[in-house]
Amino acid sequence: MRVLAAMSGGVDSAVAAARAAEARHDVTGIHLALSRNPQSYRTGARGCCTIEDANDARRAADVIGIPFYVWDLSDRFHEDVVEDFMDEYAAGRTPNPCLRCNEKIKFAAVLDRALALGFDAVATGHYAQLHTGADGLIELHRAADHGKDQSYVLGVLTQEQLAHSMFPLGDTTKDVVRREAAQRGLLVADKPDSHDICFVADGDNAGWLREKLGDRAPNHGGAIVDDATGEVVGSHEGTFGFTIGQRRGLRLGVPAPDGKPRYVLDIEPVTGTVTVGPREGLRVDRVTGIRPRWCGTVPTRLAGPGVTVQLRAHGREHPAAVRVEGERVEIELLEPAEGIAPGQAAVIYDGTRVVGSATISATGRA
C-alpha cells in the first residue's frame, strides 16, 4: 500500500513512519510548512511547525530510508486555523485549533492531495486505534495508552477519512515509542513533546490575540460584572482575553463578599461584558452542539452505561445521554461539568469507540 507519512519532526510521527515502512508499505514522508514566517512560531519543545522541526523530520526520513518532501500549506493553515482561532475568540467562544488543524489540514487538505497523487492512506503519530466493525465500517477507538490518547482531537474525522488513515502508535505507550526511536537510531528519541498552540510564539494567548485582532475585535474593552449583584468589579481591554471557567488574571478591584475566588461565567462580546461569579455558577448538565461530524453511521439517540462525552482535549469522560436532531445535538450530562465554553468540541463515545463530535453552542442547567 502506498502510504504518505505526515512527519512533524517529533518522535511520535517518526516512529509511526518507521513502523509503516517496516510493515512493507511504500512510504513517503512529508513535513507540513504551516507558517508564513517559521521563526514566528514556537521553537524547541514548544513547536511543531518550525524550520528546526522540518530538519528533524528530514533527518528521521533519511534514517528510515524513505523519500521526504515539504509541503507548503501555510496559506491554507492561516485561513482555516489561525483566522478561525481569532474569529472564534472575537465572538466570545473558545476554539480548539489542534482539532481544527486535524479537520481542515491533516485529514482534508493533505489527505485530498495524497489520494489525488495515488496514495492509499495517510499515517500520523496520533495515539488512537482503528478497527473494522461488524458492519464493515472503520471505527475510531481510544488508544491503548489512555494517558496519551488523542482520539478527542480526531473526533472530527468522517468514515471516508478514517478509511484512508493509519495510526501505527495506537497500541503503544509513549515510553515504548521513545525506546524504539532510540533503537532505530532516530535522533528525536529524546525530543520533548510539543505543547499548547504552535502559532502563539510566547504562549501568551491573550497578548497574541490583543496584538492580532486590533480593530477587528467587536469591542476594545468593557466591564467585568458580578453575577449575583450586578456590580461592576473590574474592567478589561477586550473579551478575547477571557474564557469560561477562567480564574486567574481577572484583576478584579472588588473582592467577593465571601472572600472566595470568582470565575468567568459568561462572555458577551457585543456589549463587552464579562460576568464573573462563584465556582458553583460554572456547573452545567445540558450541552447543545451544532455542526456535528460523525465517524460512521449517524445516530438518533445514545444512552446507556458506555455512553460518555469528553468536553476538553485532556478532560475526563462524562456519562451522558445524547439525542440527535439533524444538525443539532442535545447532550444530557448525568454528572455536572464545570467551565464548559461555547466553541469547544463535545466528542461522543460509546465505550472506547468515537461516535462523532459537535461544536458546543450553548450550555445550561436542567
TrEMBL record:
Transmembrane annotation, as ranges: none
Enzyme class, UniProt record, top EC level: transferase
Gene3D superfamilies named in the record: Adenine nucleotide alpha hydrolases-like domains, HUPs, Translation factors
Coiled coil segments of this chain: none
S-S bridge residues: 101-198
Catalytic activity annotation: S-sulfanyl-L-cysteinyl-[protein] + uridine(34) in tRNA + AH2 + ATP = 2-thiouridine(34) in tRNA + L-cysteinyl-[protein] + A + AMP + diphosphate + H(+)
Name the UniProt record assigns to this protein: tRNA-specific 2-thiouridylase MnmA
Alphabetical list of Pfam families matching this protein: tRNA_Me_trans, tRNA_Me_trans_C, tRNA_Me_trans_M
Annotated InterPro entries: MnmA-like, MnmA-like_C, MnmA-like_central, MnmA-like_central_sf, Rossmann-like_a/b/a_fold
Site features described as Interaction with tRNA, chain residue numbers: 126, 344
Compartment list: Cytoplasm
Main location: cytoplasm
GO cellular component, one term: cytoplasm
Binding site for ATP: 6-13, 32, 125
Domain named tRNA-specific 2-thiouridylase MnmA-like central: residues: 213-277
Organism per entry: Nocardioides gansuensis
HAMAP family on file: tRNA_thiouridyl_MnmA
Protein keywords: ATP-binding, Cytoplasm, Disulfide bond, Nucleotide-binding, RNA-binding, Transferase, tRNA processing, tRNA-binding
Active site: 101 (nucleophile), 198 (cysteine persulfide intermediate)
Region (Interaction with tRNA) location: 148-150
SUPFAM superfamilies (alphabetical): Adenine nucleotide alpha hydrolases-like (SSF52402)
EC number, as in UniProt: 2.8.1.13
Residue ranges constituting the tRNA-specific 2-thiouridylase MnmA-like C-terminal domain according to the UniProt record: 288-360
GO molecular function, one term: ATP binding
Function as written in the Swiss-Prot or TrEMBL entry: Catalyzes the 2-thiolation of uridine at the wobble position (U34) of tRNA, leading to the formation of s(2)U34.
GO annotation, biological process: tRNA wobble position uridine thiolation
CDD domains cross-referenced by the UniProt entry: MnmA_TRMU-like
